[in-house]
Amino acid sequence: MLLSGSGGDGVSAKMSTAAVPELKQISRVEAMRLGPGWSHSCHAMLYAANPGQLFGRIPMRFSVLMQMRFDGLLGFPGGFVDRRFWSLEDGLNRVLGLGLGCLRLTEADYLSSHLTEGPHRVVAHLYARQLTLEQLHAVEISAVHSRDHGLEVLGLVRVPLYTQKDRVGGFPNFLSNAFVSTAKCQLLFALKVLNMMPEEKLAEALAAATEKQKKALEKLLPASS
Q1: What is the pTM of this model?
Q2: What residues contact residue 204 under an 8 Å CB cut-off, 6+ apart?
Q3: Which one of 79, 107, 162, 188 is most buried, counting C-beta atoms within 10 A?
Q4: What mean pLDDT is predicted for residues 163-172?
Q5: Are 83 and 40 a contacting pair, CB within 8 Å?
């Protein structure tokens, strides 16, 4: 299952073999009712329709921004919000100002909340805003001059939302990278619910990425006697 409670039973079943961590989706209202034992993380997915073609023949479809973090993991711009002092949006915008430098999101951009599994009780909120390609590029330029660039944020990257003829190049290869916490699940969830990629293509990319990682691991392990 990709995301329990997401209403996406079809894609969840197809992705069950791709080892995507299960997350429980809750409403914003439910998230706000959680007690002080829960931490809140807020992240933003910025994207734009992209009419371009790679090599003049592979449709780009959309450009989605993620970032390389200080720990070598991929994630969305954002971070933890201290609910004692900030609303979700104010806290998110404060963090975005440090990493991007030129953007403010509102409650209208809210997309989802998911509970994470593990020793730390965290509810992960995701916001999404569609920009024009020109606006997206302006964000990329601004990010280079932000306070956290080269420190906590090592650079923005665009997610390749296409698969090349070898069935690995592009999105499957991207999914083979290491992601922080819920970022990979949030990416897949957003691409599905925002109708940015057909669910069968998501499943195919996940399967290809999983197979690639499996083969890479087998090469590292010594041959059995």
Answers
A1: 0.85
A2: 163, 167, 172
A3: 188
A4: 94
A5: yes
